[in-house]
Design brief:
By secondary structure, the protein is α+β, with helices and mostly antiparallel strands. The chain is built from 9 helices and 9 strands. It is 39% helix and 23% strand. Strand 4, helix 3 and strand 5 form a beta-alpha-beta unit. InterPro entries: DUF2161, Restrct_endonuc-II-like.
């Protein structure tokens, strides 16, 4: 069997929460995985080993949600060790959930070993959770893979910029007003073009923009995102 990578954990963890009725997206505001069902927000951080770094990351995420899990591959050799038992006790005291993922014969098994009891004592700020939910809800779909540290993250902002770029590619130079009429984000279209964070756009006249060569090149690498956006023009 090939070595397990962090990104291999994402699919089984995602399916586990989807089967429990959650909507799941990855790489949201530095969190590996976010699962939302109604008003309940779950944060999951994934690593290949259950170590201090992962536990500290879990504690940080408790500022965003009362329901925080860490997920790691199941290592049968460590399950009966004294260190493992002490670590499990620590997670319970910190009220951090634990998910173990087993890989056997090309089949994945997910086990929820610890469930958070919402008694960590850490205050979840409403402003933080609102920001997290806004980013989650503004994304058209799940266009990232949790644990993929070296990939460009498709944020809601990037999706909005791609929407603008796609229309400019198809229609040619347009005004901000015309872009909004074609369905781009009403509040952010002007700001995205004026700040030009990704350097995809050129200003050709007052309030009129076109897509440049860099933007055209980037569009090709995000064809799957454009398809998910389902742009109608």
């Amino acid at each position: 069997m090939t070595a397990v990578k962090e990104i291999d954990l994402y699919k089984p963890v995602k399916e586990y929460f989807i089967n429990k009725g959650y909507d799941v997206k990855s790489e949201v505001l530095d969190c590996d995985v976010i699962a939302i069902k109604g008003n309940k927000v779950v944060v999951i951080e994934m690593k290949l080993r259950l170590n201090l770094e992962l536990i500290l990351q879990g504690i940080d995420r408790q500022k965003l949600s009362e329901d925080v899990y860490v997920a790691v591959p199941k290592n049968y050799r460590t399950l009966k060790t004294k260190k493992w038992k002490r670590t499990i006790n620590l997670l319970k005291r910190l009220d951090i959930g634990l998910i173990l993922v087993s890989f056997k014969n090309k089949t994945c098994y997910v086990e929820e070993l610890i469930t958070p009891q919402n008694n960590s004592g850490i205050r979840v700020r409403s402003r933080n959770i609102a920001k997290l939910k806004k980013e989650f809800e503004c994304r058209s779909g799940d266009n990232n893979v949790g644990g993929s540290n070296h990939s460009k993250i498709v944020t809601a902002y990037r999706e909005q910029a791609l929407h603008i770029a796609y229309i400019l590619e198809k229609k040619g130079p347009l005004s901000i007003k015309a872009l909004k009429e074609l369905g781009t984000d009403y509040k952010k279209t002007g700001s995205i073009l004026q700040k030009n964070y990704y350097n995809w756009f050129d200003k050709v006249d007052r309030g009129v923009y076109s897509i440049n060569e860099r933007g055209l090149k980037e569009l090709k690498s995000y064809e799957n995102v454009i398809k998910a956006l389902d742009v109608k023009i």
